[in-house]
Amino acid sequence: MILLSNDDGIYNQNIWALAKELKSIAEIGIVAPTSQMSAVGTHLTLRAPIRINEFPDQIKQSIPCYAVDGTPGDCVVVADEHIFPHKIALIVSGINDGINLGDDIVFSGTVAAALMGYLRDIPSVAMSMPFDSPQLLPFATGLVRLLCQDILADKLPSKSFLINMNYPAADPKDVKGIRLVKPGHKTHVESATKSSDGRYDYYWLKYKEKEAIQPGTDIDYLNQGYITIVLVNRMLFGQGLDTLDSAYLDDLFARFKAEFI
């Protein structure tokens, strides 16, 4: 079984498009947050009960679906422990509505769901695409399907991995390739903007973008029009799958182009 989760919530169209795409290659289960959970990172609900409710299959494909009153990480834990015990062969988190690059990796709820899978010894993929770009969704879901087929067929040299993949803001004919890259660092800092309602001061946390882009990073390559892959397992823990051969990535990209161009 492939478990699908996300941080945009179970009502987000991307997870349903992904379920429809992957249903052709494997049994699918969906366990996702009831509400929007972007940027919650690795937060787990430890001081309140977690409630789970069956959710109607939005694509009428007889997919078991559950909405969790909790975080993306909570979803993976309850899915593996109680909803689909001993059944999950692969976790895909996303497709996130907005890219997850550089420093985003450490506080992304999308990546956190995949991280929780990796920590439970389940191969996991986090997939993201540019915000508010529904025209790119068929290409992103198709790419995930091709990768998942390879994973389930044991075509990767190890099943101990956490892959963070991002699709660029480009039509398939303009995508330049797939690159295994390192994440950018200090790409932005968080800032707090002060305001007042007349009686009290309050603050909004915002991104403060930096102009400099480090060459050779995921941000650099995505901006050039490449699909980017970061092996988060190596980045965080220095173990598990240590590389993806360039010949394999070229072959994956060739199959992607053959299908969509």
Could you characterize what this model shows?
With 261 residues, this protein is of the alpha/beta class. The chain has one domain (2-183, 213-260): 3-Layer(aba) Sandwich (Stationary-phase Survival Protein Sure Homolog, Chain: A). It is 31% helix and 25% strand. The chain is built from 8 helices and 11 strands. The chain has helices at 13-22, 72-83, 104-107, 109-119, 137-152, 218-224, 232-237, 246-260, and strands spanning 2-5, 28-33, 52-54, 65-68, 90-97, 124-129, 162-166, 177-180, 188-196, 201-209, 226-231. Strands 3-4-2-1-5-6-7-11-8 form a 9-stranded mixed beta sheet, sandwiched between helices. Strands 9-10 form a two-stranded antiparallel sheet. Strand 6, helix 5 (137-152) and strand 7 (162-166) form a beta-alpha-beta unit. Helix 1 (13-22) packs across helix 5 (137-152), helix 2 (72-83) packs parallel to helix 4 (109-119) and helix 5 (137-152) crosses helix 8. The mean pLDDT is 93.
Query: What kind of sheet is the major sheet?
Result: 9 strands, mixed
Evaluate the radius of gyration: 18 Å
CATH architect. name? 3-Layer(aba) Sandwich
Give the end-to-end Cα distance, rounded to a whole number of Å: 30 Å
Low-confidence stretches: none
Order of helices and strands: EHEEEHEHHEHEEEEHEHH
Helix content: 25-40%
**Strand line-up in the sheet with most strands:** 3-4-2-1-5-6-7-11-8
Can you identify the CATH superfamily?
Survival protein SurE-like phosphatase/nucleotidase
Q: What's the shape?
A: globular
CATH class descriptor name? Alpha Beta
Structural class: alpha/beta
Task: Average the pLDDT over all residues and give the rounded result.
Answer: 93
